[in-house]
Design a protein that fits this description.
The protein has 333 residues and is an alpha+beta fold. The chain folds into three domains: 10-107, Tumour Suppressor Smad4 (Sandwich); 122-241, no CATH class; 247-316, Arc Repressor Mutant, subunit A. The protein has helices spanning 135-138, 149-158, 193-201, 227-245, 270-282, 285-291, 296-308, and strands at 13-18, 23-27, 33-37, 44-45, 56-61, 64-69, 76-78, 81-83, 85-87, 93-96, 99-107, 123-126, 139-141, 144-145, 163-169, 172-179, 182-188, 191-192, 206-211, 255-257, 312-318, 321-325. The strands form five sheets. A six-stranded antiparallel β-sheet has the order 2-1-11-10-7-8, with no helix packed on it. A hairpin with a 4-residue loop joins strand 1 and strand 2.
Amino acid sequence: MDHAKTELPLHEMLLQLATDRQVHSFDLQETFRVSIGRHHTNDIQLRSNRVSNYHVEILNEAGELLIRDMGSTNGTYVNDESVRRQRLESGDRIRIGSFLLSVTLVPRQRKTKLASPFRIGTVGNILPYQSAVSVTQLTMSPERIDTTLPDLLIQLASHGMTAMIVIRNQSGDGRLYLTDGQIVHCQAGNVRKEKALHRVLGIQKGRYEIFAFPTDATVPMTIAGQTEIIILEAMQQIEALERLTSKLPPLVYEIGLNDACDVAVNALSADELEIYEYLIRYQTIVRVMEESELTDFQVLRHIHSLLARGFFRTTKASDGLLEETSFSRPEVS
């Protein structure tokens, strides 16, 4: 295989590991180990029964990029050859189960910091998405700017800002962390990653404040990708979530297994199987939404599919009794 030549030392490079769905980027000046596996604590999580919980690690050691299989069940392949420990180069292809990751090393570039109306200490009201007003019209003073959350984040991204944004509303606080304009982490209560980001972006009333990026604590890198694309995908899921919720029973209704279902469980995908097991354990949609690491839209989409295929039945409270209710299959247009 032809490999791209990398003249620069590793600490001046970005490591990009691309699947067919996402590009994961790591700054090799700061990253010395990348773990990959099925468990959610890995830097890159691959959801498949063919992937071990902790399958493989990529190491930045003594100026070399190495890959090491961590005793996986199904093995690790680089350029279609089984490996235990081997040097990696730009252009290599890693196969883990059914996943293929391409390796690319690119020079790390610092973004030019442009003048921005936002700065550390800026506060403001969060406006509904329908408030199509530009930031300049909303500026009341250098310290206060009222805006929508998507517009705020896109502005910070376009100016390469590094900061922590705290969002407050009646439901609680959320925190967004940006490095050089890229969203790297989000937390809302006990929820993290994309799930937390989608919940925070769904807030249409509250307050925000921009703080300096914390230096006294390690902020995990749980979100990767271009900020504008991340926000666009999140907003699409938020809109779809509202439509999907109307097609489901109330989220607090109890859900039980349908003994009459003749569809085999092994026909389910890995994510569907996870939601299937959570529904058995927690019995209500709202509990599954809290326990699963999938986004709320992904959870409801899988529950809708499981109900439509007859795996579960729903019940509702009526005059103190629980009555079974049928779930109609969606119409096919």
